[in-house]
Amino acid sequence: MDFTDYYALLSLFADYTGAVDNGDWDRWPEFFTEDCLYRVQPRENHERGLPLATLSLESKGMLKDRIYGIRETLFHDPYYQRHIVGAPLIREADGDRIVAETNYAVLRTKPDQMTDVYNVGRYLDTVVRTPAGLRFASRICVFDSEMIPNSLIYPI
């Protein structure tokens, strides 16, 4: 993998993080291919090969439905989230496909409370080259704890 591709991957991760941290929900599905997988799964289930996930979306259409839910149907205490994302470890890279693993931490701040650690884990990503640039074919968010506070509203 050359520096140009690595920089493009870092830019994809930074743009993704900026969009979800700023609540720019219209942009979120555009980071993915049409036929994609987005899953948020506890570490124990992932390591045991168990399919149960907290959230599992299998196409860009399902991602858009999730955004509709965030805006129109889910009722929750508002909060802000902020991602801290490590440097990606490249597991595989060939012409049009990159497989990477990246640690993350998500902090959550409710307007009237102190910031707390919301979710910590690693992204297992398969990124592909498209005419529009690099996009996620698969993003699996494997979180370390078996528990998450309350419910998962926003993308990780």
From TrEMBL:
Enzyme Commission code: 1.14.12.-
Indicate whether Ubl conjugation appears among the record's keywords: no
Q: Which SUPFAM superfamilies match?
A: NTF2-like
Q: Which CDD domains match?
A: ring_hydroxylating_dioxygenases_beta (cd00667)
> Would you say which domain of life the source belongs to?
Bacteria
- GO terms assigned for molecular function: oxidoreductase activity
The record's section on Pfam families has: SnoaL_4
User: Which controlled-vocabulary keywords does the entry list?
Assistant: Oxidoreductase
Record protein name field: Salicylate hydroxylase
